[in-house]
Design a protein that fits this description.
The complex is a heterodimer of chains A (334) and B (324). With 334 residues, chain A is an alpha/beta fold. Chain A is built from 13 helices and seven strands. Chain A has a single domain, classed as Rossmann fold. The longest helix of chain A has 26 residues, at 3-28. With 324 residues, chain B is of the alpha/beta class.
Chain lengths: 334, 324
């Protein structure tokens, strides 16, 4: 760990935490509609892995991996514009919450049936292999996704083709309200993935340095052409499934136990103990994050709503076709 | 020009596109050394190698998803479904991922998902379906249903070159039964243009796929009775050549909508709605549907024969319309 890396990891974890806090606030104010989903307490996982990506690598984040978006260069105001349904968001108002993707940032969007991203992420890795590009894909998902058929199909496919991909599981122990013990009869996700024929490793998902080291090894292996690795990052969702969910089903002692393992507070302690950063430097990062988010909210709220004239744009590549198709179907062409 | 089959025409189209464009590859089950369940990819492994003729595990979600991911990276995957019926196993990836990606976040998914559909070969309830309608109803997907060897080659080429996801439903009954002389070398048939398979002035039959031949047989018989039938082969359901349909109806004033798919919610319903919306004043008789009944495709020969729309039922509908 160097001071520079420490600063970077702390900045992105803190930015994710505070940006999500602000998103929740805007949601409670009725400015963000629909649902909002957070990775509170899980920041070390996307931050500790995505910082390792090279410019031409790709990430496929889940809904609890906001740091991966930020690290890939999606600016906080663009994220907020997306949540607010504005034109400057990466989906131009066509989708909401964490359903964000951006080809220029090399971020592949997941869809709500979340395991579906895993076979798609394999395809991105397949294209690297096809073109002999030395790149890798980081594919994120939760414990719930590992119960889906396409997840198992994709694990097997990735193994058979030795794809340059790292499967990163946020095992936060609850899929909505369903605890991991109702998700599977084996103790670990690594037990599930272990039969497919690539290395699987359990990682302390609340220790950003541990996530970083494990990801580094897995990425290097993938880049060498040796195939996938699965990292089961054990963590806890310090929030409900979404902001409307009070998570009363979570036993109180789990909140307390995991609250003490906050990845940000923990990392700050390490940075101080190892004299990598001073208290003043840490406070400086906090201050930078707070002011960046204030500016981002202001800019995002200035972004216009999408024009309803563009409702059909992008259904097909040929926009004219989509419009005429619709116009004729609704009788407007005559 | 030598005669080639419908199946060979599709192979030729894919082969030429793979020779032309390094980004094109094919994925599916048993397509390599075995050459595919219908031998459509016979000889392709030898020519293009394992990198581009990719045998996969028996996992439709895994390989369809992989094709989607590769397509977003700019490759041009062709996915073979061993039978079009199995498309249901990867429905989510097609309708929720591929169809919506461009609209949601500007990520085009230029894939072709192709496979044998249709009955008439005693395949039973899982190897005979016509699964086009759910995909016609999903914005963002194109649906192609070739009836001739000429079109099969030209349309598969257009589908491979298309920037959007295309579902290409071949009719397995035509694979070897249909032989035609087709132009050699490169030509594409534009998606969304119907074809007048036979010109006529009294009744229009709007149809697609193998039913084009049922319509043509009926037209031949009806001509003996002095009824001149026009047969419109749609070639594509999306984009739909609505003008070709309406032009024909305006000319004949009587229309039969014929498809092998079952009746309830079938494509004929959409056509009927468009005809009544846009050409109501041209109609001299009710819009008639001739389709399979609402029942799974049965196996036993007399049952399957009773299930499939045939020349007799088309002739009866035409006679009814003529005197209406």
């Amino acid at each position: 760990m160097t001071p520079e890396l420490g600063r970077r990891l702390l900045y992105y974890m803190k930015l994710m935490r505070e940006l999500e806090h602000r998103i929740e606030k805007l949601y409670r104010q009725g400015k963000i509609l629909g649902g909002v989903f957070f990775g509170r307490g899980q920041e070390a996982i996307s931050a500790g892995s995505a910082v390792l990506t090279e410019p031409d690598d790709y990430v496929c984040p889940s809904h609890r991996d906001l740091a991966a978006f930020l690290i890939r260069g999606m600016e906080p105001w663009v994220v907020l514009a997306h949540y607010l349904g504005r034109r400057d968001g990466p989906t131009r108002g066509r989708d909401g919450n964490t359903h964000m993707g951006s080809l220029p940032h090399h971020i592949i969007s997941y869809i709500s049936s979340m395991a579906a991203i895993v076979p798609v992420a394999n395809g991105v890795a397949f294209s690297f292999q096809y073109r002999k590009q030395p790149n890798v894909v980081l594919c994120y998902f939760g414990d719930g996704a590992t119960s889906r058929g396409e997840w198992h199909e994709a694990m097997n496919f990735g193994a058979v083709f030795k794809l340059p991909i790292v499967y990163i599981c946020n095992n936060n122990q609850y899929a909505y309200s369903t605890p991991i013990t109702r998700q599977m009869a084996v103790p670990h996700i690594t037990d599930r993935a272990g039969g497919y024929g690539f290395p699987c490793e359990r990682v302390d998902g609340n220790d950003v340095a541990a996530v970083y080291e494990a990801s580094k090894k897995a990425i290097e292996r993938a880049r060498r052409g040796e195939g996938p690795t699965l990292l089961e990052c054990e963590t806890f969702r310090m929030t409900g499934h979404s902001a409307h969910d009070g998570a009363e089903y979570v036993p109180k002692q789990l909140w307390e136990e995991w609250g003490r393992k906050c990845p940000i507070a923990r990392f700050e302690k390490v940075l101080l103990e190892k004299r990598l950063l001073s208290e003043a430097e840490i406070q400086q990062i906090h201050g930078r994050v707070a002011s960046e988010i204030d500016a981002a909210v202001e800019r995002a709220e200035r972004s216009p709503y999408p024009d309803t004239a563009d409702l059909l744009e992008g259904v097909f590549a040929n926009h004219t076709y989509a419009v005429s198709h619709h116009a004729m179907a609704s009788g407007k062409a005559e | 020009m030598p005669e080639i089959t419908y199946l060979e025409a599709i192979r030729e189209g894919i082969w030429e596109e793979m020779e032309r464009d390094e980004r094109v590859f094919m994925m599916g089950e048993d397509i390599g050394a075995y050459g595919g369940a219908f031998k459509l990819s016979a000889g392709m492994l030898e020519r293009f190698g394992e990198r581009r003729i990719v045998d996969t595990p028996l996992s439709e979600n895994a390989f369809l998803g992989a094709a989607i991911g590769a397509a977003m990276m700019g490759l041009r995957p062709i996915v073979e479904l061993q039978f079009a019926d199995f498309i249901t196993t990867a429905y989510d990836l097609i309708v929720n991922y591929a169809a919506k990606a461009r609209y949601r976040w500007g990520a085009g998914v230029p894939i072709v998902i192709r496979g044998p559909s249709g009955g008439g070969v005693h395949g039973g309830p899982f190897h005979s379906n016509n699964p086009e309608v759910p995909f016609v109803h999903t914005p963002g997907l194109k649906v192609v249903v070739p009836a001739t060897a000429h079109d099969a080659k030209g349309l598969i080429k257009a589908a491979i070159r298309d920037p959007d996801p295309v579902l290409f439903f071949e009719h397995k009954l035509l694979y070897r039964k249909l032989k035609e002389e087709i132009p050699r070398g490169d030509y594409a048939v534009e998606l969304g243009k119907a074809r007048i398979a036979r010109a006529g002035s009294d009744i229009s039959i709007i149809t697609y796929g193998a039913m084009v031949y049922v319509a043509l047989d009926a037209a031949k018989a009806l001509a003996q009775e002095g009824i001149e039938v026009e047969v419109v082969d749609l070639r594509c359901l999306v984009p739909l050549d609505e003008e070709a349909v309406l032009d024909s109806v305006r000319k004949t004033n009587r229309v039969i909508l014929l498809h092998e798919d079952t009746r309830m919610g079938g494509f004929a319903g959409e056509l009927a709605a468009r005809i009544t919306e846009h050409a109501f004043d041209s109609l001299d008789a009710p819009v008639m549907r001739v389709t399979a009944p609402d029942c799974p495709v049965p196996y036993s020969p007399p049952l399957e024969e009773a299930f499939l729309p045939n020349t007799k039922s088309v002739i009866e509908a035409a006679r009814y319309l003529k005197v209406y």
